Amino acid sequence: MSDIHVEVIHSERIDVGDGVRIPTAWEVVATNQPDVAGTIRLHVVFDEQLRRAAATSVSLERPGEGDEVTAAALRDIRVQYLVAVSSMRLITVAREGGEPEQLGHYLAALKTRTDRSYEETMREAVTIYRLASTANLAPLKLVSEHLGVSVSTATRMMARAREAGLAEDLITRDTYNRMRAEREQTGPYQVPGSPSGPSIGR
């Protein structure tokens, strides 16, 4: 069975925006990983330039005498997976005026709410997008999954959020242009959480 242990080595947490916080650095020790015999060790930091978690070093310890570390084994280490899994365990989210809560609790609470206003839905989408980007996950997929919308709708929502000034630091101009082009191709859509409107089109 896969075993991943995470140890925070710096207690300082960085506020990356929208209540999302993550430690500055941590260690990951993984054993029993698919196709990898031995113990994997990663040093992970929140990289200020990349604005996301990133591995700074990776090592593999052989499982025992008579074994060796090979190039094939090193290629099979799922570095980005381990970075993402460990990040998701460490991220906390603080809602406006609230205390920081573990990411799992935050995401579980999202699925129980069905009465969000348009503004609340937009802000939740931005928060989910930010935490996914921080953990080096696919952000639009996470927005889609946890707000119960299609990836296309999530894409248009985030384009709208950038237009509203809520996600300019998250979404580059090139990415925004692609989102906008998709929105124009697919036409208007009804904003989740706002049964009577508004409808956002071109």
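That was protein one. Protein two is written in the same sequence-then-structure order:
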Amino acid sequence: MSEIIVFREDRFELNVNFDGETVWLTQADLVRLFDKDQSVISRHINNIFRDNEVDEKSNMQKMHIANSDKPVKFYSLDIVLAVGYRTNSAKAIKFRQWATKILKSYMIQGYALNKERLQHQKLEELTQTIQLIKQGLDNNTLSIAEAKGFVEIVSDYARSWALLQGYDEQSLDEVVQTKEQKFILDYDEAKEAIAELKKVLIAKGEATELFGREKADEFKGNLLNIYQSFGGEELLPSVEQKAANLLYYIIKGHPFNDGNKRIGAYLFVLFLHKNGILHQPNGEPKINDNALASLALLVATSAPEQKEIIIKLVMNMLYEGDL
């Protein structure tokens, strides 16, 4: 119990212990509040516990207080209200209204603190993303187009962070994920799509026969992962979540002997297109070619423990076109 607050009603005044979640009163406080004999208050409390109306363990605490040689019992707001109903006290109604106001105020303050923490978390995610990109730049020789793509990734993610902050301040429309799936990517269709891509790339001299050749059944497992469910509920309920995880699984899982980044990016685009969320309302792609190539490289060079931030990055880039 970290704070003492004062309840006042007409000329009546009572010091109340407050811990942020509920208020606590002693039995002596209840006697004063309801203007009843201690035996009456004690009987009501015993009956409340006997009838299991309120859980005794979580609603009663023993505390040492000044001028007392033994612990004193404190009772939560639930007990106070239950006793108030039994005594039919008008003062109990006033106390309930006052306590509710106090608790509501704390909840609002707590929300404000949580909001600051969440905003700080978003800033940390952005910092991690920039660090990932720096690692990519340090460890790889990038073309001008790839470097431009990295800049676009940072720019898009920073805008998404600002938009999410705006939503938290109630200044934006709600960010909605796409849960209606128009298309389910099954193994056979995916294999056909990869075969067509392979044919085109071989004709251009940009692939060999090793391109798209599977390692055991790893690719099939990647596809099954994005459609997993538990207790009848999908673990990845939105199209954006499935798309982001599909891209990650293929690129990081290396289910093919060659072409994992290109296949991952290709199926990512195919999945978004067939689900109707590849483009923004103005017809522009949510993730352009340069950004997609750089994103694939970023996924490939990321550490396994960075999976969560990578998935969030991809989803934020997809959210951008929906706002």
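The chain has two domains: 3-109, 140-322. Keep this in mind for the problem set.
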